[in-house]
Amino acid sequence: MDQLDQKQLEQLKQQQAQKEQMEEIKKSILTQILTPEAKQRLANIKLVKPEKAELIEVQLCQWAKQGKITNQLSEDELIKLLEAAEGQKKQETKVTFQRRKLSSDDDDDI
């Protein structure tokens, strides 16, 4: 029982270390590709919508690794990317309502 707990504790420590290492790599990449103003904008977004900021950070890191971002992004460029991403999200969302007819809703009674 004690060995099992120790193995689980060791695995948790390894996972935490990997997570911290990935976080450091992400911070390093973002520092290279974002101006200080853009980093501040992203930090502000992270305060309000942490999930959205995380997705943006991952996307920016992927673009940097793929070579799609060659020089630092300014705050204005980051805003344009955010607006474009928001526009795509809005286009994907569609809600339709289908009203079911009940027997009491028949127009034949009138």
UniProtKB/TrEMBL annotation:
One of its GO terms (cellular component) is cytosol. One of its GO terms (molecular function) is DNA binding. Keywords: Coiled coil. Residues 5-32 form a coiled coil. InterPro entries: PDCD5-like. Residues 88-110 are annotated as: Disordered. Pfam families: dsDNA_bind (PF01984). This is Programmed cell death protein 5.
